[in-house]
TrEMBL record, chain A:
The keyword DNA-binding applies. The keyword Metal-binding does not apply. Keywords: ATP-binding, DNA-binding, Kinase, Nucleotide-binding, Transferase. It comes from Sporolactobacillus shoreicorticis. Residues 110-343 form the Sigma-54 factor interaction domain. Gene3D superfamilies: P-loop containing nucleotide triphosphate hydrolases, Phosphotransferase system, mannose-type IIA component, PRD domain, Winged helix-like DNA-binding domain superfamily/Winged helix DNA-binding domain. PANTHER family: TRANSCRIPTIONAL REGULATORY PROTEIN, TRANSCRIPTIONAL REGULATORY PROTEIN LEVR. InterPro entries: AAA+_ATPase, P-loop_NTPase, PRD, PRD_sf, PTS_EIIA_man-typ, PTS_EIIA_man-typ_sf, PTS_IIA_man, Sigma_54_int. This is Sigma 54-interacting transcriptional regulator. The lineage of its organism: Bacteria, Bacillati, Bacillota, Bacilli, Bacillales. Pfam families: EIIA-man (PF03610), PRD (PF00874), Sigma54_activat (PF00158). SMART domains: AAA. Residues 466-573, 843-948 form the PRD domain. Residues 574-711 form the PTS EIIA type-4 domain. Transmembrane segments: none annotated.
Length: 950, 169
């Protein structure tokens, strides 16, 4: 029961025995909810008219007898306010309702409808008004450009013009079911009883639901071929069949609006572009005029002002930063960013009843960057500056900016959460600075977790390859239930771990395999976790309800242990830092400074008086390493090279992954603390980045590396990767298959994948270590082994690459340095000369290299693209080969057909012109055949870059 | 079933422009294997070579020993590789060690150096190379000289005999 429901239920009870009403304190005591929260719920309910407020001291509240019917109307209102008055709000809503009736052209107030969207609006109107039934429309535009918003406008236009008979805007995102065409089809078209397992009764689809209204199909390029065919048939004839029927006898009158981010030229869209008569292309945010951008910003800010019922005040530079912060996501991104800074502003201006102020210096760094992004485009900045005033104040205005339902709307009211938290913390006696700090972290988390959903879609895509969509769907349901009803905290990887587990035991049950027996130690272990057992039983019931077969009792235990592990495993901790330096207080004073500056807690010092013996130092450092390790390894900063050999000894002693850098300055320690304090940066990354910090010598570590490798080579044990799953059985096999595939794909044949069950993880790992050298781990939890760990999410998200590079590092002598070709012009030249000398016989490297570099520069200038160093070298080597073939009269042959084809390409004339350089300097004229191969070289490179960029 | 080796090619420069644009398309491979102990240790050359790989075809640099191991491992039977080696000696080590069945070996270019003599415009050989070529010839494996697949094929054995480096058989 939500807090709101609790309050309402209590008030209902009081109608009879306390007709004079009850006070906030009384309610608070009776239902066990903190007073400020009760008070807030009450204010809200009063505003909605469900509860009456009787002024006096103390104020009394009672149920409003006329309540209930107003619910739907109230929905439209921004449902929170700290300052605004209920009366005024009501009037505004009413005014809006009446205004709507007169205002027929809803496109009028859309930003850009007379400017950058003029054509689009006319297209849309024409499409809707076209007799007799209008034309179906495809909206194309990049992510966040407002396709859903535009479709909504089309719907309202159609409704006002009485083009559609029924209220109803049905939305369907084709990507949601793209992996399961049958499920998608059944959603869209409905099905008849018996069409597939589980189809126990006839069911209508969305098409029928949208009859007389409008159906919006988003991400339509993800619609599978079967779906396309049906939709096209429906477009042509107005009839369709449900799944399991042969005759297309059902009729529906539906306006179809499609949307996609795909390039209309792409093959995915070809059929749509051909079959859909009206195509509306929405512009990028950056194609919009400065005036429009500003208006969009104003409108989005008004939306937030409405939500918080306060004015929003912001300076010129904040406006510029916000506009500049839009890098890829268009209006959607702008909206998200505005939400973030308003949340921050709201928090900082909590005491001010009338307005919140946004200051540039308080903006999050990536939004601050927006200012410099914008500044790089002088013209745009100029246009904008002309329109800007020094300060801008946005007032709440219910007529503008009523939020539409779109994917950029948070599913909950962020400001309400902030208000609640702040009140709570204040009650706890925290000071304002601490409260702000705490809540800002929280806001970031909320927004991050929300916007990460986009990413999650992808990852669930990866999961989809090994688990049925149905299982993923039910797991999502379970996750939701646990969060909402049981108030059970669910971690990010819940979907992965749980769906894999469910999938494996369902397969097991279905295939009639014997059930897993429960070991006694498992049961005894679970006695300590009664709440997880309870939740597991809930989950079991949910699954039983869905699949309609009994789940064995033993699964409850396995599920419970899965829940325990998902819960207890702390989010991978920060990388620890130990500073060890000679001198009585050198290390500790440096650490003190850094701790104070950054308020971090992942750093420890070890002072070594000069007379201290290395043995004692090693033990002392080991103790510090153990103390500071949070499971992600420790970075050791030392002041003398001799200490840097400690890494492997320390790892041996402490079983903590240790990396050493032989440089200690306060700046270095600061940098290390800053980097490790960022969540998710692992030891290897921090280590690599810090080594590049200041460009100091790396020799010590290299020597060390060799020693490490000698150590590794002497290890006769076979290498293994461990994969950790709930049971180590069915699911684990799938992960093993996946890993095996990755390994084979990368030609790695000397590493075995071993699956490990969560239940006896530590014992099993110890056993494995007797025969194998564990080099990496993956799975649902991070084991306590000092090896790189790749989480299941990352692995499925295409982290296979990362995994392989980890393994390659293990296999090879040195850590992968930054791109070895990323060096200066003169070095490249030297290297080219070397190779020329090595591979060619007749040409003179020292003399030819400059000619060929000029040749490259010429082409580079003409194409206006920068060649990578690698490609430049490759091209020069090829050219040297061509020159030598010319000299020895042994040119390569080409098919005549291919030759004429190449002449049509854009590179051909450039290569011909570049050939003049060789003609002038060397008096050599390359044949058409050779020109062909040069052009092909460029084409291949281009193709490669294109595929990489997509 | 074993790995279907579509082409074994000797070229001092291993993977470069011509090979990229031409052979990979002509012989329809799903993998390019650069087999060279030297390059496997040389990060710069390795990077250069991998970057010259044609789009869509994975390319790996491996040692001779690993090539032999992979050939005998049924897990890698799905590969249809083009194998590139630097010189005939490595080619022989690969074929002899793995037992790959081939009826011809393609030779693109072998760079001249102080130990070698030129036998064609692009191929230079030393004693060890000649020894290796003999080994191939004795097993009925054709020594096919072509820079790109369109070129007309020349037999290296003929050139070697004409130079008096081998006795014609």
């Amino acid at each position: 029961m939500t807090r709101r429901e609790k309050v309402l239920t209590y008030l209902e009870k009081c109608i009879i025995n306390k007709p004079q009403g009850v006070t906030t304190s009384e309610i608070s005591e009776a239902i066990g909810v903190l007073r400020p929260n009760v008070s807030k719920e009450l204010n809200q309910l009063v505003r909605e008219g469900r509860v009456k407020k009787i002024n006096g001291r103390p104020v009394h509240y009672l149920m409003n007898p006329a309540a209930g019917k107003r619910e739907t109307k109230v929905q439209q209102k921004p449902n929170i306010g700290f300052a605004g008055s209920a009366q005024i709000q009501d009037q505004r809503v009413k005014k809006k309702d009446t205004a709507n009736k007169h205002e027929i052209d809803v496109f009028e107030n859309m930003i850009g409808s007379r400017d950058s969207l003029k054509n689009q609006v006319e297209q849309a109107k024409a499409a809707l008004l076209y007799p007799p039934h209008g034309l179906n429309t495809l909206i194309i535009g990049p992510t966040g450009s407002g396709k859903t918003y535009f479709a909504h406008k089309m719907y309202h236009f159609a409704l006002n013009k009485k083009i559609i008979s029924k209220k109803g805007f049905t939305t369907f995102n084709c990507a949601d079911y793209a992996h399961n065409p049958q499920l998608l089809m059944s959603h869209l078209f409905g099905y008849v009883k018996g069409a597939f397992t589980g189809a126990s009764a006839d069911k209508d689809g969305l098409i029928q639901e949208a009859d007389g209204g409008m159906l919006f199909l988003d991400e339509v390029h993800r619609l599978p071929p079967e779906g396309q065919e049906m939709i096209f048939y429906f477009m042509d004839h107005g009839t369709y069949s449900r799944l399991g029927e042969t005759a297309k006898t059902h009729h529906a009158d539906v306006r179809l609006v499609f949307a996609t981010t795909e390039d209309p030229k792409s093959s995915l869209l070809q059929t749509f572009v051909r079959r859909i008569p009206v195509i509306i292309q929405l512009p990028d945010f950056n194609q919009r005029s400065a005036r429009e951008k500003l208006k969009l910003l104003e409108q989005l800010l008004t939306l937030e002002a409405n939500r918080i019922h306060k004015n929003i005040r912001l300076n010129e530079d904040v406006v510029q930063a916000l506009l500049g912060s839009v890098t890829y996501g268009n209006i959607g991104q702008l909206k998200s960013n505005i939400q973030l800074v308003c949340a921050q502003g709201f928090l900082n201006s909590m005491h001010d009843k009338n307005e919140i102020a946004l200051f540039f210096n308080r903006l999050p760094p990536d939004i601050k960057d927006g200012l410099s992004n914008l500044a790089s485009d002088r013209k745009e900045l100029g246009n904008l500056s002309r329109l800007l005033e020094a300060t801008m104040v946005i007032k709440p205005d219910a007529e503008r900016g009523v939020p539409d339902i779109d994917s950029y709307e948070l599913p909950y009211n962020l400001y309400e959460i902030i208000g609640d938290k702040a009140a709570l913390l204040k009650e706890e006696g925290l000071n304002q600075a601490a409260i702000n700090n705490f809540i800002m972290t929280d806001i970031n988390l909320h927004l991050k977790s929300f916007y990460r959903q986009g990413k999650l879609e992808n990852t669930v895509g990866g999961l989809n390859e090994i688990v049925d969509q149905e299982v993923i769907d039910i797991t999502k349901q379970i996750q939701q239930q646990l969060q909402e009803k049981e108030n059970y905290p669910v971690r990010d990887n819940f979907i992965y771990a749980m769906s894999l587990h469910i999938s494996s035991f369902i397969k097991r049950v279905q295939s009639g395999k014997p059930l897993r027996t429960i070991s006694a130690d498992l049961i005894s272990m679970l006695h300590d976790y009664p709440s997880e057992i309870k939740i597991a039983e809930r989950v079991k019931t949910l699954i039983e309800e869905h699949y309609r077969f009994p789940i064995p009792e033993s699964e409850v235990y396995y599920m419970a242990i899965l829940l325990v592990s998902l819960k207890s495993d702390p989010k991978t901790g920060k990388v620890g830092i130990v500073v060890a330096a000679h001198g009585n207080s050198t290390a500790s004073s440096m650490v003190q400074v850094v701790t104070q500056l950054l308020s971090v807690n992942n750093i420890a010092a070890y002072d070594m008086p000069l007379e201290m013996s290395p043995k004692i130092a090693l033990d002392g450092i080991a103790a510090q390493v153990k103390k500071i390790d949070q499971g992600s390894g420790v970075l050791l900063l030392v002041d003398m090279g001799s200490l840097s050999t400690f890494s492997s000894k320390l790892t041996e002693k402490t079983h903590v992954h240790v990396k050493t850098i032989d440089m200690v300055t306060t700046a270095m320690v600061l940098e290390a603390a800053r980097k490790t304090a960022l969540i998710d940066s692992d030891l290897e990354t921090v280590y690599r980045e810090l080594r590049e910090f200041d460009g100091y010598s790396r020799t010590v570590e290299k020597v060390q590396k060799k020693k490490d490798n000698a150590l590794k080579r002497s290890d006769q044990r076979e290498k293994a990767i461990i994969a950790i799953c709930s049971t180590g059985e069915g699911t684990a096999r799938k992960i093993k298959d996946l890993l095996d595939k990755i390994l084979i794909d990368n030609l790695i044949d000397d590493i075995t994948v071993i699956t490990v069950s969560l239940v006896k993880m530590n014992d099993q790992i110890a056993e494995i270590q007797q025969n194998y050298q564990i080099v990496a781990a993956t799975g649902i939890v991070k084991p306590h082994v000092a090896v790189p760990f790749v989480s299941l999410e990352n692995l499925l998200q295409g982290g296979g690459e990362h995994f392989v590079s980890l393994i390659e590092e293990l296999n090879h002598d040195a850590a992968r340095e930054a791109d070895p070709l990323n060096h200066s012009q003169s070095l490249t030249k030297e290297m080219i000369q070397n190779y020329l000398g090595q591979y060619f016989t007749f040409i003179n490297p020292a003399k030819i290299v400059n000619v060929l570099l000029d040749y490259c520069d010429f082409i580079q200038r003409r194409c206006r693209t920068k060649m990578s160093n690698a490609f430049k070298i490759s091209l020069i080597m090829h050219m040297a080969g061509a020159l030598e073939r010319y000299l020895t009269r042994s040119e390569m042959s080409v098919d005549e057909k291919k030759l004429s084809h190449v002449r049509m390409g854009e590179m051909y004339p450039i290569i011909k012109q570049a050939g003049e350089i060789l003609h002038q300097t060397l008096n050599i004229k390359l044949s058409e055949n050779e020109v062909y191969y040069i052009v092909e070289l460029f084409n291949t490179e281009k193709e490669k870059n294109d595929t990489q960029n997509n | 079933m074993t790995m279907d080796v579509r082409l074994l090619r000797i070229d001092s420069r291993l993977l470069h422009g011509q090979v990229t644009t031409n052979w990979a398309k002509a012989v329809k491979v799903n993998r390019i294997l650069i087999v060279s102990d030297r390059v496997a240790q040389d990060r710069t050359r390795k990077t250069l070579i991998i970057q010259a790989a044609p789009p869509g075809i994975s390319t790996n640099v491996i040692t001779v020993e690993k090539m032999i191991r992979l050939y005998h491992d049924p897990r890698f039977d799905v590969l249809k590789p083009m194998i590139l080696v630097e010189d005939p000696v490595d080619a022989r080590r690969v074929v002899e060690g793995s037992g790959i069945k081939i009826d011809s070996i393609n030779i693109g270019a072998i760079s001249f150096d102080n130990t070698r003599v030129m036998v064609t415009d692009a191929i230079a050989v030393n004693a060890a190379d000649v020894e290796a070529f003999k080994w191939f010839h004795d097993r009925g494996i054709k020594l096919d000289v072509r820079k790109v697949s369109n070129d007309s094929s020349k037999n290296l054995w003929k050139s070697l005999s004409e130079k008096g480096l081998v006795r014609s058989k």
